[in-house]
Design a protein that fits this description.
The protein is an alpha/beta fold and 256 residues long. The chain has a single domain (11-244), classed as Alpha-Beta Barrel (TIM Barrel), CATH 3.20.20.190. The protein has helices spanning 26-34, 75-79, 99-108, 125-139, 152-161, 180-186, 201-209, 222-225; strands spanning 11-14, 39-46, 52-54, 112-117, 145-149, 168-173, 191-195, 213-217, 235-238. Helix 3 packs parallel to helix 4 (125-139).
């Protein structure tokens, strides 16, 4: 297997710097860059008209001033939403970001992206994957991109579009169950993305033995997480990566 030459960071900003700015927005990615975090984890899904947007939930209720499902919105209506004021008045008027807008920002700052294909109930795997994957391949070099998902069908379709040498795929797990190896092998996975609270030393060792990179989400307590670095965890996804300052296994390893 020939993977892209990705220099995994120790830390990724979860949904952008979501501790300091509204999640999954351009503002959150700018905030991550400003504090020196050069990789971000974001979510992508489709509006009802097929426009790919950076968004986590099936609805807009939690992170905007609107109500309803993403599937019932088209781009002009989505663009009218305020996706920032729920977080603080400072971000009032922040728009929902399209995938293309986000990729332009990430490229401008030469950042890395771990993008999760978010398949909420009733949404089409093919529709999302067939739009997102070619867009990513056109926009970012392979060494600055990981595409991840909990959904095996989405990852399989992504692999049909792009070989392992062109696109790193990450398999998301809440807990590593008995079929984790076969799931990773089926799509030539680059990385395993595990819930840090459900991971144990034996599982971490098995991931390394299988040749996969180990990324943990979403750790916000660097002291509680500290012992897991010795298990071979390479990267942590955090709402506030800055909280890990002074808690990394190798503080001289370079930029985050």
């Amino acid at each position: 297997m020939s993977d892209p030459r990705i220099a995994l960071p120790r830390l990724m900003a979860h949904r952008g710097l979501s501790a300091r700015a509204p999640e999954n927005t351009l503002a959150a990615v700018r905030a991550a860059h400003e504090v020196g975090c050069y990789w971000v984890e974001l979510d992508v899904q489709l509006l009802g008209d097929g426009t790919p947007v950076i968004w986590h939930d099936a609805t807009v209720n939690r992170c905007s001033d609107g109500r309803g499902t993403l599937a019932d919105l088209d781009y002009p209506r989505a663009r009218q939403l305020d996706a920032g004021s729920w977080f603080s008045d400072h971000f009032r008027g922040e728009p929902m970001a399209t995938l293309r807008e986000m990729l332009e920002l990430i490229n401008r700052h030469e950042m890395g992206l771990n993008l999760e294909l978010k398949l909420n109930r009733g949404r089409s795997v093919a529709a999302l994957t067939d739009v997102v994957v070619p867009t990513l391949l056109d926009a970012l070099p392979a060494e600055r991109l990981i595409l991840s998902s909990f959904n095996d069908d989405a990852l399989a379709r992504a692999r049909e579009i792009a070989p392992a040498s062109q696109l790193a795929l990450g398999v998301l797990f809440e807990g590593l169950n008995s079929d984790w190896r076969s799931r990773c092998e089926a799509i030539e996975a680059y990385s395993v993305h595990a819930d840090w609270k459900r991971l144990n030393r034996r599982q971490a060792a098995a991931v390394a033995e299988a040749g996969h990179h180990l990324i943990c989400y979403t750790a916000n307590d660097p002291t509680a997480f500290a012992h897991q670095w010795s298990w071979g965890v390479e990267c942590v996804i955090s709402d506030d990566p800055g909280s890990f300052a002074g808690h990394l296994p190798d503080e001289s390893s370079g930029r985050q």
